[in-house]
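quick one, 124 residues, struct below
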Amino acid sequence: VQLQASGGGLVQPGGSLRLSCAASTFRSDIYAIGWFRQAPGKEREGVSCITSNDGSTYYSDSVKGRFTVSRDIAKNTVYLQMNSLKSEDTAVYYCAEVPCDPQGMGAMPRSGSWGQGTLVTVSS
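---
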């Protein structure tokens, strides 16, 4: 399953962006989807995910209260709404199918590879 993140761009601190994760061959009510990010010189980190059965969500401490993950089953799309953005949110963001529950998320895609990410730059 090939997933592609989109919606990144340049935003000022305190601003908002909404990222999208779409695929032509998966159904978001079957697979759990996670959002990851990798800042320059840093390891990739999982920031949020949404489960496949009941839509439960998980957020890392670094984004909790600012980011919201959601899904549109009809559009086979998962979203990451990012509010109150900070400079430290600057990174390439990826989405992937991973294990997910409200306590945490998997670290690697089930497919074994990462799709194309989208760059988010938070800067004044």
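DSSP finds no helices and twelve strands in the chain.
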